[in-house]
Amino acid sequence: MGKLLSRGFMCGAAIWIIFPIIVVCLAALNSGRTMFFPPEDPTLARFTEFFLTEEIWVRSLRTSFVVAFSSAGLAVLAAWPIAYGLWRRNDRGSKLIAGLALMPFALPPIVFGVGLVFFWGYLGALGNIWSGIISHAVLFPALPLTTLSIGLQSIDRAHLDAAATMGANEATAFRTIILPQMLPFTASGFFFALVLSFNEFIVIFFVSASGYSTVTVQIFNSLRNGFTPTMAVGAITFLTISALVFSLIARFGNLPQLLGSDSSKSS
Amino acid sequence: MSDLVLENLRKQFGSFVAVDGADLTFENGKLTALLGPSGCGKTTLLRMIAGLESPSRGKIMLNGQDIAPLTAEQRKFGMVFQSFALFPHLNVARNVSYSLRIAGVDAKTRRARAQELLELVQLGDKGRNRIGELSGGQRQRVAIARALAQNPEIFLLDEPMSALDAKLRNDMQMELRLLQQQLGITTIVVTHDQREAMTMADRIVVMSQGRIEQVGTPQEIYHRPANPFVASFIGNANLLQGRTIKNGVRVDQTELIVKGQGELVPGAEVTVFCRHEAVRLSTDSLGENCVPGLVTFVRDEGVAREIHLETPVGRITAEIPGSFHETVRIGDRLIAELSPDTLHLLPVAEGVAA
Amino acid sequence: MTALPLPARSPFKRLGLLHVAVILTLATIPFLLVFAISFGHKVEGAAWVWSLEFSNYKRFFVGSDYPDTVSFLYLKYLWYSVWYALVAAVLAVATAFPFVWQMIRLSRRAQTLWLVFFLCSLTFSEVFIVMGWDILMSNRSGLPMLFRETGITDWLKANGGLDLLREWGLATPRNVRFKPSQFATILTLTYLVWPYAVILLYPPISKIEREVIEAARTMGAGPLTVMRTVVTPMVRTPLIGAVLLLFVFLLGAYVTIAVFADPSSHTLSISVYEAVRGATLNAPFGAAQAVILLLTAAGVLVIGQRFMSAKSGGR
Fold it and tell me: Which residues form the ABC transporter domain (chain B) (predicted)?
């Protein structure tokens, strides 16, 4: 009885989470200009529009990719020294640095967005795509910082002592011991940042200043003018990318460990 | 190659003194065990020799030079860690040849050396295995091979057997000792297991609370402990508190005769030391140093049995061969004979648990 | 062997310092700018100039024409920001907690699958989620149409349910109507952070030792008693922590409010956007509103921190 109840509860939760997503996905099959649910006269024409024929979507998808990949890469590069310093020294200074680096992610993004508008506006770079990339790169080091810290925690310090007794200095030990063991965590951090950048709306909405638009911004702009089923194709694309990335992280990394569960107990 | 000499070596963490002025000589080609309870500073001492901790004061002399200012990577003493610290991302052979790779040795030489060492530790066919595929004993052999790959001047081992189960531990102790003798390399092993130290070492350094209590061969340490701490830490001994008299010692009201301890100055506070296995038990004997006792506990260990007695001189434990006194039970009365040549007098030290 | 001097410093030090300086500049300067500009002066019909005046804050709290007239419009926006965020955060944590409690009993593989699922929905952009609920809620498609087609609307009309819903602002005389409404807003906000709540609660709950629960059960506690007397007190700190984090996150929610909330119950985020990038274009006033939003978030976090450290005592 209790088991049945708990199963029912979990199924209910799953349905509650997945219901609007399914609605969006099915809406993509609409043939007309307006969204209906359930779809009327299903067709796949919206997919060709989104990926190939409609200039506006093709371009914003490309922009989304450029912003996500570059900013995730930069975020990882930004996070590495901070995570390494935090792990190696673990003093007040390194904690303060990490805290400040986490700030843009921890505070309401709209405030950071406003600040970035002023910042880039001051530099005359508002609406440049690279200022958008840097904005995301500053927003998202929190994720690689977390995965890298978790990874570094799991490195046995005796490994470094062992390397030292065999003649490795800090740089050599970093290259031959730490870096190889940290690859999965670096990749996880990169992909977390990638997916979040991909889906981020508010900051990029502020800094893009109609100079360019990512898919999320384009969708929001279209939302205000009413739906088109093509937008739903964007949703499906994004969802697929997220699912793919997280499945990869789960497959090659230890997802429960990355999310902070006690891995020693159940693995 | 010369001896490794520590001169007044000290290590302090804040106000805690981990190693307090150690003066030691590690003879070339010999195996020395640093023995003591956990927290006695033995691991800190080893890590200072390896260069993983920098001494607060003192010198580490090797080949006539103070190597204390050198870092671990400059000393390149091989070390085997308690957890073995094998690199999980490298296979067995690459772990072994790690020191050669970072020193820029070419791949062919590296492979050959790794193979040579793996054969030395009887793992010649495991070179391509991953670390995760090895058993505990195999991992330890890899750790040993890895530490030896760079031909270190000093070979260091920190509690190398603690991750192994009891039976494997016995085998590995013998194996490690044979390997060390075969290579003739100066070796320092940290351990808290006196049996392990006695199995492997040429010399044992007993440490307690950052201080060196005694240095000597296993026989010396066992039979002639320098103080009550060593006496109680190594093997099993009865320790009685007393005061010297002309020809022996008085414990409470009982006078015990002591032989072979040189001239005795009457009236000095001493600790009387007698090994469990040196106590003889009988029902009627009335020889020298006989004390009557009441049996309070019997522990049967198969080959031997331990009989605890309450006597006028205090609690006495006797270890006798398993077949003797088979019918002894709690509450029986027996005579314990502490023959004069098995008693040793030690200076009284404060804060020692017998 | 020759004695070499110790390497004076880590090889990464210089590189690291430069790097950290760049990151910190980029991470902090925008916030400092917001703060500085909030004291700026708006020039009518033009941009703004640096200044040190409190008129923007005055306008926020009592309106620009004070003391002639008093306006609490922006305080009302702030109130709605706090209200939506608080209700949605509490709802999400309260429902996610029992869910996670069930989830940690599953096999590791099943847990990982669930986590992947939640991470996907967690990262799914706010715009898509709003789009999904919008389709579901909009009057020409989704639920209202479903209600009409299936006859639920008629049934509601017949037994007076529709009148009740009208009182709650969820219906028109002809059919149910979910948009705009506070109901739709809070529903979507809760949905938005629900997976987030699961991910936040998963680590502390998964670390509860099974033996503690079993010990309680051997002393005669049933599942509900265990939940009430053992589990909940053990994870009280993470529960409050999760509510606070979600609250801060929701405080800046924009898309949901823009789409689902009635203009009369809009929040500070909307008004910030209008001032900074939208129709009204008053950067200093937008900045001042952003500062207030930030201070609200910081205030709640500090109070929460105090509360938690007082509760958890010696831990």
Answer: 4-234
